[in-house]
Design brief:
2 copies of one chain form a homodimer. Helix content of chain A is 36%, strand content 20%. Chain A has 204 residues and is of the alpha/beta class. Chains A, B: It catalyses: (2S)-2-phospholactate + GTP + H(+) = (2S)-lactyl-2-diphospho-5'-guanosine + diphosphate.
Chain lengths: 204, 204
């Protein structure tokens, strides 16, 4: 199955600014993207990066600088099943993605924390995406309106996307690959001295 | 299987103070507890509430006012498998709990966001808990030290515990039962006008 991985290459991950400068955030986003591509490839499927600017990866890329919703909808509508997996799912593993890809349903979705839609499998040409707002609820409605089944996977690894400093806790607790190594190299560690897990960056 | 549900009845959920007063927080915690008990019973297992003060539920209770770790460890150590499921897992469903209870492993854990351990199945008498700090990492280590297997379930429904106002978003998006009704009655709704899902309480 073709697996589209949207990637915003232009000033990504701005909410991590308290921890990383613009170049670092770009490096970090790229580390996550590459880990996601590896995880997708390990499931035996074919990732392609949908990006708004050229990006150095070892898989095919599609350049499209329109907003996310428009760019993804342009990839949908064909007869073959297709998946959309966000590039910042740093906890995604081959096992969690395999579970997603193998779930039955016209549309299978991985809800993100806070109402996003972190991943989709689309097996019907009529379905369209709308990533604005609480998109998981919108996607449920869109499927309902066109009369196709909508199934949600219960996965923490696919629910966590990395946007804010507090999300880095999850990578330090459960992550691996380039993303984890990148954080380790920058001296980002877990601090549990006050009884709750927080992230600290020893460099700053 | 016996399923211990620890419940802190004394001033629960203080981090929800921006939304609810003390009486409301107690009501809300009780609604979540009862939903969790129902979900556990639906799996065919036997819940018992481990609480620091008398609580009005339809299942057996054990009164123990020691700290969580001590009170839970007092329940472990027997020959029969036992589970520990936190009372604030408002998204837990019979399906997610069944998946947890049926997973193989000497110790099976549901990691909570931020490093907690939201649920455990313990099939070995030597295992003990330690809920302080990033307990999921500590529990991994404890299992490793005594040479038993430690398996983690990948479940968003078991990863989300309800502590802060932002957690309420998940109930409004994915919850049901008494907890959801309680929020609806208090006028707590989702606001997505700025493109992200936030919770607002129309009463205040």
């Amino acid at each position: 199955m073709r697996v589209v991985v949207p990637f915003g290459g232009d000033s990504p991950k701005t909410r991590l600014a308290p921890f990383f400068d613009a170049d670092e955030r770009r490096d970090f986003a790229l580390a996550m993207l590459r880990d996601v591509l590896d995880a997708v490839e390990s499931t035996g499927n074919d990732p392609v990066v949908l990006t708004d600017r050229p990006v150095d990866v070892h898989v095919p890329t599609i350049l499209d600088d329109r907003p996310l919703t428009d760019a993804v909808n342009d990839q949908l509508g064909g007869d073959d099943p297709i998946a959309v997996v966000m590039a910042d799912l740093a906890l995604a593993t081959p096992a969690s993605l395999t579970r997603l890809f193998e779930m039955e349903g016209d549309v299978v979705a991985a809800p993100g924390l806070g109402g996003g839609t972190n991943a989709l499998v689309v097996r019907t040409p009529e379905f369209v995406v709308d990533y604005h707002g609480a998109s998981i609820a919108d996607h449920r409605e869109i499927a309902d309106d066109i009369g196709v089944s909508f199934v949600e996977i219960d996965s923490m690894r696919l629910a966590v996307d990395i946007d804010e400093p507090s999300d880095l806790v999850e990578i330090l607790l459960h992550g691996r690959g380039r993303t984890r190594e990148w954080l380790d190299e920058l001296g980002v560690t877990l601090d549990t001295t006050d009884g709750r897990a927080e992230v600290v960056c020893h460099r700053r």
